[in-house]
Amino acid sequence: MLIKIRSFKNLFFDLWYRFGKPPWIIDEAQPDLIAAAEKGEVCGPTVLDIGCGDGNNAIYLASRGFDVTGVDFSAKAISIAKQKAREAEVDVTFITLDALHIGTLAKRFDTVIDFGLFHNLGDADRRRYVRALSEVCVSKGRFLMMCLGDEAGEYPVYPKRYPPTMSQDDIRTSFSEGWKIEWFRLGICKVHEKFENYSSWLTAMTSTK
């Protein structure tokens, strides 16, 4: 049953990318990621972008000289990301891969980023995801995460509790083992013009394994 659910979600997102415009498609890197990179908060040389979507964050980091790999479970999103990278004339490795399986990657990364995926996972998948992060991040490597925050309450454009939001305590609980949280920063998840930008928590943490 779980495989069927994941297959349906893959199909749904493939169709959304093909025929629509998901809210997070803004054709540029997230402003909070740009600010973090400019402050030296993205460590290199290797970076993994989990849930990379159509590739804007990965392409931006590659343009700054990082060796970037982007993964997303939507094959259509990856196809769009590859085309964007070619047009931008930057080298990025884009792979169609479920975020829960990133531990299968042969490469290990100095920084892993997740800008908008984690808050969508259920409790069991969050535990699997955190374990996989530890497998793919180098010892003392950095994880930089942006997830929709609880500061703004519920968002009026969606039904109750969607999109899901997280508190600092939620994040601390999820990353209580194997990670040291360095800081939280209140930020903004920028979306396209049909939606209102979301309040978010930007969190930096270091692998202790």
Protein traits:
Rossmann fold; single chain; seven-stranded mixed sheet; 6 helices; 7 strands
Tell me what the structure shows.
The protein is of the alpha/beta class and 209 residues long. The chain has one domain (2-207): 3-Layer(aba) Sandwich (Rossmann fold), CATH 3.40.50.150. 33% of the residues lie in helices and 27% in strands. It contains six helices and seven strands, in the order ααβαβαββαβαββ. It has helices at 2-19, 31-38, 56-63, 75-88, 123-136, 168-174; strands at 46-50, 67-72, 92-96, 109-115, 137-148, 179-189, 198-207. A seven-stranded mixed sheet has the order 3-2-1-4-5-7-6. Strand 4, helix 5 (123-136) and strand 5 (137-148) form a beta-alpha-beta unit. The chain is globular, with a radius of gyration of 16 Å.
Unreliable residue runs: 1-5, 153-161
CATH level 4 superfamily: Vaccinia Virus protein VP39
* Rg from alpha-carbon coordinates: 16 Å
What is the CATH architecture descriptor? 3-Layer(aba) Sandwich
Helix content: 25-40%
Q: Describe the biggest sheet? A: 7 strands, mixed
Set down the secondary structure blueprint:
Elements: H1 2-19, H2 31-38, E1 46-50, H3 56-63, E2 67-72, H4 75-88, E3 92-96, E4 109-115, H5 123-136, E5 137-148, H6 168-174, E6 179-189, E7 198-207
Parallel strand pairs: 1-2, 1-4, 2-3, 4-5
Antiparallel strand pairs: 5-7, 6-7
